[in-house]
Amino acid sequence: HSDCELSISLVDEKEMSALHARWMDEPGATDVLSFPMDELRPQSAASGPGMLGDIILCPEFAARQASQIGHSLQEELELLTVHGVLHLVGFDHREEDEKKIMFGLQESYLTDWRAQ
Fold first, then answer.
1. pLDDT tens, residue by residue, 27-75
2. Strands, DSSP E only, in the chain?
3. What is the enclosing helix (H) or strand (E) of 3?
4. Is the CB of residue 16 less than 8 Å from the CB of residue 62?
5. Mapping DSSP to helix (H, G, I), strand (E, B) and coil, where does residue 53 land?
6. Is the dihedral of CA 47, 48, 50, 54 positive or negative?
7. What tens digit of pLDDT does each residue of 60-115 get?
8. Is 89 helix (H, G, I), strand (E, B) or coil?
9. Edge-to-edge, what's the strand order for the sheet holding 5-10?
10. CB distance 54 to 7 below 8 Å
11. Whole-angstrom Cα distance, residue 15 to residue 58?
């Protein structure tokens, strides 16, 4: 919905490691974490904007990934932001068929964004 909001935070590796351990029960930093709101429901103009959730990005981690892949930090942060938004709206990549759909959408959105 056009009135939906989301929060994007940039954190250092220490903070990302703490969040990753607390919420995903996995050690070390990661590139992006998404925390969707528990309940998505249709919004009307009278009820105000909805909140999709929170995206947490770790630029330090992303910079290393970007260097390894061979693209800029900007491109990596764009990719991670789109990836995070897709998670917020219900997409996942645990299964191969889910991964194909999610990563296809991710690439399509990035291509459209960068063409503007």
1. 999 999 999 985 555 544 455 567 889 999 999 999 999 999 999 999 9
2. 5-10, 32-36, 51-57
3. none
4. no
5. strand
6. negative
7. 999 999 999 999 999 999 999 999 999 998 999 999 999 999 999 999 999 999 99
8. coil
9. 5-10, 51-57, 32-36
10. yes
11. 9
The residue type found at 27 is P
Which structure tokens are listed for 62?
């992303």
Decide: 19 and 67 in contact? Cβ < 8 Å.
Answer: no
Report whether 11 contacts 58 (CB < 8 A): yes
- Per DSSP, what are the bridge partners of residue 55? 8, 34
Q: How far is CA 85 from the centre of its chain?
A: 5
Beta strands in 48-115 (DSSP E): 51-57
- CA pair distance 30, 56, nearest whole angstrom: 10
Which two three-digit tokens encode residue 104?
Answer: 């296809």
Per residue, what are the HEC states of 20-47?
HHHHHCCCCCCCEEEEECCCCCCCCCCC
